[in-house]
UniProtKB/TrEMBL annotation, chain A:
Pfam families: Fer4_7 (PF12838). It catalyses: a quinone + NADH + 5 H(+)(in) = a quinol + NAD(+) + 4 H(+)(out). Belongs to the complex I 23 kDa subunit family. [4Fe-4S] cluster 2 binds at C84, C120, C123, C126. This is NADH-quinone oxidoreductase subunit I. InterPro entries: 4Fe4S_Fe-S-bd (IPR017896), 4Fe4S_Fe_S_CS (IPR017900), NADH_quinone_OxRdtase_chainI (IPR010226). It comes from Solitalea longa. GO terms for molecular function: 4 iron, 4 sulfur cluster binding; iron ion binding; NADH dehydrogenase (quinone) (non-electrogenic) activity; quinone binding. [4Fe-4S] cluster 1 binds at C74, C77, C80, C130.
UniProtKB/TrEMBL annotation, chain B:
It is a multi-pass membrane protein. NDH-1 shuttles electrons from NADH, via FMN and iron-sulfur (Fe-S) centers, to quinones in the respiratory chain. The immediate electron acceptor for the enzyme in this species is believed to be ubiquinone. Couples the redox reaction to proton translocation (for every two electrons transferred, four hydrogen ions are translocated across the cytoplasmic membrane), and thus conserves the redox energy in a proton gradient. This subunit may bind ubiquinone. One of its GO terms (biological process) is aerobic respiration. The gene is nuoH. It comes from the Bacteria. The keyword Transmembrane helix applies. GO terms for molecular function: NADH dehydrogenase activity; oxidoreductase activity, acting on NAD(P)H, quinone or similar compound as acceptor; quinone binding. Its EC number is 7.1.1.-. This is NADH-quinone oxidoreductase subunit H. Belongs to the complex I subunit 1 family. It catalyses: a quinone + NADH + 5 H(+)(in) = a quinol + NAD(+) + 4 H(+)(out). Keywords: Cell membrane, Membrane, NAD, Quinone, Translocase, Transmembrane, Transmembrane helix, Ubiquinone. The chain crosses the membrane at residues 6-29, 76-99, 119-141, 162-184, 204-220, 257-277, 289-315, 335-354. NDH-1 is composed of 14 different subunits. Subunits NuoA, H, J, K, L, M, N constitute the membrane sector of the complex. It comes from Solitalea longa.
Length: 165, 357
């Protein structure tokens, strides 16, 4: 039957020529190919010393941001926890006491704020849900550990250090 | 025998043994790193700079692993297998001439452990003994896969030894001697009598077909890819050393690398002029001390060996393994007739050019 596209390629199976049956030319060309790879630039990255560059929209460990005066932006509204599809975020809200104005921006703040990195799927919904621009997934990959407890990140690990501003 | 000679030989044997062990040790690393390079990877580079401590780490690992003796194995033969493999691998380097005689004043030191006039036959004898290490160890482990690997190893070795021997006969017709030193010294002359080719009269230019056959058979004798059927991982679960663990396995692997080193040395000596190098006459005429020429010759010999060791690795990551019937057909239907034809043609050419009458 006539083919519709004429793109079909008919392969003919010819008997091998003497050179092909000798197998040595084929081995030689194979050896040159492997030798080319021997001197090629290697694809491997020496990981702990050299790190692959992250893309600009890479989502890593969360960080809780501070404002220009170094006060925590988070107001413990719970929208991030609500939007989290993996239910990785828990928090306990507390009321700001007089004299703590330099620490927390709003009257309400998160007394504890925990993200379970084993549950988190790094979707970035918390970042999108936050009305206070308080959480961003701008960190690295969570480091490995032998204990599950070490993957529950509290405020000690999440809040960005104060000297940044 | 005077005691000075005994001490000299003892030192030489120790050096040769240590060198072949160290080369074998580092071949494991070179193999892995070069394998990685061929596959665009980096390979083990963590233990020490460039990974040079990796063989030590492997050795420590192998030594500290649990020794398992299978319950129904023949205990004595099971242990004898790797020992035999190691033994035969190390003794074959005895007749290889590593260099010309070192001459310091009136003191002459031979750089060959034993210059016997049947050196080549000795190597063949020892190499064919090498298969006993695999046979004994594989059979004694009372395992079907090991037995299959053993049978494969034995029949492969026997088949390829014939072609190897036939190829060597054509070479012997050219060299006219079985002594390794005689063969190597015979290659120090000019190539086809051309001027300026002193030290290049290598047998590979006179016997290219024999070289090719010998090269192929060398791969088969060392059980290296593409002829690594005795230990093919995918079909036989590592073949004859399936049941061997700890340093017994280490000995088998080690023996393979020593075999590689020795057969690289043998092929360099037989076909690539051994310690001869182009320009040695010019150096001697320029008045360079003879021990310097000897040492450069040893260096040249080791460069040739290094190339063949590299070639082993290079081929391993290029050519896939043969199927067993292909292996047998290549051995019996192609190499043996080719080698016999080579003998005939060599004889005719030698008769016509007046080398024999």
């Amino acid at each position: 039957m006539e083919s519709l596209t004429n793109r079909k390629k008919v392969l003919e199976q010819k008997p091998m020529t003497f050179a092909e049956r000798m197998y040595l030319p084929a081995i030689l060309s194979g050896l040159t190919i492997t030798l080319k790879h021997f001197f090629k630039k290697k694809a491997t990255i020496r990981y702990p010393e050299v790190k692959r560059e992250y893309s600009t929209n890479f989502r890593g460990i969360h960080s809780l941001k501070r404002d220009e005066e170094g006060r925590e932006r988070c107001t413990a509204c719970g929208l991030c926890a609500l939007s989290c599809p993996a239910e990785a975020i828990t928090m306990i809200a507390a009321e700001r006491k007089p004299g703590e104005e330099g620490l927390y921006r709003e009257e309400k703040y998160a007394a504890t704020y925990e993200i379970n990195m084993l549950r988190c799927i790094f979707c970035g919904f918390c970042e999108e849900a936050c009305p206070k621009e308080a959480i961003y997934l701008d960190g690295d990959i969570p480091p490995a550990s032998f204990d599950r407890e070490n993957f529950v990140y509290g405020k000690d690990k999440l809040v960005e250090p104060i000297h940044k501003k | 025998m005077e005691s000075a000679l005994i001490i000299e030989k003892f030192l030489l044997i120790t050096i040769v043994l240590v060198v072949s062990l160290v080369v074998a040790m580092y071949m494991t690393l070179v193999e892995r790193r070069f394998a990685a390079f061929f596959q665009d990877r980096l390979g083990p580079n963590r233990a020490g700079p460039f990974g040079i401590l990796q063989p030590l780490a492997d050795g420590v690992k192998l030594f500290t692993k649990e020794e398992i003796l299978p319950e129904n194995a023949n205990k004595l033969l099971f242990i004898m297998g790797p020992s035999l493999a190691m033994f035969t691998a190390t003794i074959s380097s005895a007749v290889i001439p590593w260099g010309r005689d070192l001459v310091f004043g009136d003191k002459v030191i031979s750089l060959q452990v034993a210059d016997i006039n049947v050196g080549l036959l000795y190597i063949f004898g020892v190499v064919s003994l090498g298969v006993y290490g695999m046979m004994v160890g594989g059979w004694a482990s009372n395992n079907k896969y090991s037995l299959l690997g053993t049978i494969r190893a034995a029949s492969q070795s026997i088949s390829y030894e014939i072609a190897m021997g036939m190829a060597i006969i054509a070479l012997l017709m050219v060299t006219g001697t079985l002594s390794m030193r005689g063969i190597v010294d015979g290659q120090g002359s000019t190539l086809y009598g051309l001027k300026g080719t002193e030290g290049l009269g290598w047998n590979v230019f006179y016997q290219p077909v024999a070289f090719l056959i010998y090269l192929i058979c060398m791969f088969a004798e060392c059980n290296r890819t593409p002829f690594d059927l005795p230990e093919c991982e995918s079909e036989l679960v590592a073949g004859y050393h399936t049941e061997h663990s700890s340093m017994k396995l280490g000995f088998y692997l080690f023996a393979e690398y020593i075999n590689m080193f020795v057969s690289s040395a043998v092929i360099s000596a037989l076909f690539f002029g051994g310690y001869n190098f182009p320009g040695q006459e010019a150096l001697a005429n320029a008045g360079v001390a003879s021990y310097w020429i000897t040492l450069i010759g040893v260096g040249a010999f080791f460069c040739k060996i290094a190339f063949f060791l590299f070639f082993f690795v290079w081929v391993r990551w290029t050519i896939p393994r043969f199927r067993y019937d292909q292996l047998m057909r290549l051995g019996w239907n192609m190499l043996v007739p080719l080698a016999i034809a080579n003998i005939g043609i060599t004889g005719v050419v030698m008769y016509l050019t007046g080398h024999i009458n």
